[in-house]
Amino acid sequence: MLKTYLMVMLGGCFGVSARLWMSTAMQARWGEDFPVGTVAVNITGCFVIGLFAVLTASEGIWAASPLVRQAVIVGVLGGFTTFSSFSIQTLTLLKNGQLTAAVANVFISVLGCLLATWAGMLLGGWMNGKSS
User: Which of 54, 98, 109, 118 is most exposed by smallest CB count within 10 Å?
Assistant: First the structure.
């Protein structure tokens, strides 16, 4: 178990670094009026997690051990973008015929995260002595 945690943490270091690099490069190129860096990171991460998950599954052409899959999917790609994890989980629910759960996951995740971010911003503003 300790080995798994260490591998995921190591992968996370690479993912976070890649996210910072890519997001910063995109923002430098396209400006900061729209979060193009974040969108690019999320879309890229979602593509890579889908590709990697299929290719490294037990029936995939590059079948990988559970440790390698966790290090890359949870560590590297989780550090790169959590949106990729959300996407693969939602598509897995759909693949397994769990339409209601998939739709609920989308709405609860998106609305819940937006509301939680807003609440955190309000609380942070209040703690900072500001009311916005």
Answer: 118
